[in-house]
Design brief:
The chain is an alpha/beta fold. The protein folds into 2 domains: 133 residues, Aspartate Aminotransferase, domain 1 (Alpha-Beta Complex); 235 residues, Aspartate Aminotransferase, domain 2 (3-Layer(aba) Sandwich). The chain is built from 15 helices and 14 strands. A 7-stranded mixed sheet has the order 3-9-8-7-6-4-5, sandwiched between helices. Strands 10-11-14-13 form a 4-stranded antiparallel sheet. It has a 3-stranded mixed sheet with strand order 1-2-12. α2 runs antiparallel to α12, α5 crosses α10 and α13 runs parallel beside α15. The chain is globular. It binds pyridoxal-5'-phosphate.
């Protein structure tokens, strides 16, 4: 039993540091008004930024896809699991990115985590150099490790630091890797400058747009549309379980890059293809994102964000207004963030406390995410609660 004792001791150590994690169990679909562990809560934590997870047309398409293609794909893409729905989705996504990537093709993955592992693992080998923003998502960090490339971590959004690192590089393969929208801060990478550097140094620019896809750009194409990027150096990863409301991810790049991934990306090759019904449902989701309804939902989301920004009057906690759906409020210590989450929960508000290692030590925070499914009244309820708790915190000894 020594092995279990070790784990038990380690779990207790997490408790002592307020770092132990627990899951909540929801009993309703992903909507702002959610039933969780038997209680009705108003949630500000999902990444369903456009409210598409419960869109009737997508639900109908998922059901239709299941009837048409069955429940599972049965094999990996290179054996027999690659179906018509996957192909259609990939063509649809490639067309969506055509303004930003030359000769674009897209590759559909079961998850964004896998897509990032695949891109970095397949494009960078041990002789490559990889340049990674200090606040990049864990899946990019793990992909960098998988690649065995030499990894340089540059300070968050620090273009000058990155430029000096690149100038000193001798490697023939270089990848600059960044979140498009940083997942725990909600800020946008300095993409135009990053792309200039990539072009100047013959490097790839890999953008993980998990939180920009669907949300940013007039047609919801994400940070590439928002920053008006176009280059043969671009490789874009978009996830499809957040704003797109379903699940999975895609890589969009020049067709030759995609061919290479199909041949070399281990997370792609050695994993069963996602259910074709998911790809079928995503065709509807992409239509909604690009079309008039997506535009309306993005406009509503922006209006809600502005409403929160003008309503919040925080004195002690640090609120950083962001041009995305992610609005972080930094409290500092883990215990403070957990206490705030517990106080909000008493008011039936569900806002997660984000602690290290997800964020740097000393920057524990409330990560408020807004969705087009929220109403003005929902946002007002949260605003009032946060203003009240912050003022109480200011008077605490
Ligand atoms: C969520 C997320 C991922 C992983 O995507 P999944 O489809 O959830 O596996 C990758 N990168 C970032 C920045 C994310 O926020």
């Amino acid at each position: 039993m020594r092995l279990l004792d070790t784990l038990h001791t380690n779990l207790q150590a997490l408790d002592a540091l307020h770092l132990r994690r627990h899951r909540r169990t929801t009993e309703s679909p992903c909507t702002p008004h959610v039933r969780v562990d038997g209680r009705d809560m108003l949630a500000f934590c999902s990444n369903d930024y456009l409210g598409l997870a419960t869109h009737p047309a997508i639900i109908a398409a998922l059901a239709e896809g299941a009837v048409r293609y069955g429940a599972g794909s049965g094999a990996s893409h290179l054996i027999s699991g690659h179906g018509h729905a996957h192909m259609q989705l990939e063509e649809r996504l490639a067309a969506m990115m055509a303004g930003h990537i030359e000769m674009p093709r897209a590759l559909y993955f079961s998850t964004g985590y896998m897509a990032n592992m695949a891109v970095l693992g397949a494009l960078a080998d041990k002789d490559a150099e990889l340049y990674s923003d200090a606040l990049n998502h864990a899946s990019l960090i793990d992909g960098a490790r998988l690649s065995r490339a030499r990894v340089h971590i540059y300070p968050h959004n620090d273009i000058d630091a990155l430029a000096s690192l690149l100038a000193a590089s001798r490697a023939s393969t270089r990848l600059i890797v960044t979140d498009g929208v940083f997942s725990m801060d909600g800020d946008i990478a300095r993409l135009r400058q990053l792309l200039q550097l990539a072009e100047h140094h013959h490097a790839w620019l890999v953008i993980d747009d998990a939180h920009g896809f669907g949300v940013l750009g007039e047609h919801g194409r994400g940070v590439v549309e928002h920053a008006d990027l176009r280059s043969p150096h671009l490789i874009v990863v978009g996830t499809l379980g957040k704003a797109a409301g379903v699940s999975g991810a895609f890589v969009a790049a020049h067709g030759t890059v995609i061919d290479w991934l199909v041949n070399r990306a281990r997370p792609y090759i050695f994993s069963t293809a996602a259910a074709p019904a998911l790809a079928h449902a995503l065709l509807t989701s992409i239509d909604l994102i690009e079309g008039a309804e997506g535009r309306q939902r993005r406009a509503h989301l922006r209006a809600l964000t502005q409403r929160l920004q003008s309503g919040l009057q925080l004195h002690r906690w640090q609120y950083h207004p962001m041009p995305t759906a992610i609005q972080p409020i930094v409290l500092g210590e883990n215990s403070q963030a957990l206490h705030a989450t517990a106080e909000l929960e008493r008011l039936a508000l569900w806002v997660p406390a984000i602690r290290p290692p997800t964020v740097p030590p000393g920057t524990a925070r409330l990560r408020v995410t807004l969705s087009a499914a929220h109403t003005d009244a929902d946002v007002d309820r949260l605003t009032a609660a946060l203003n009240h708790l912050d003022s109480e915190a200011s008077h605490a000894p």
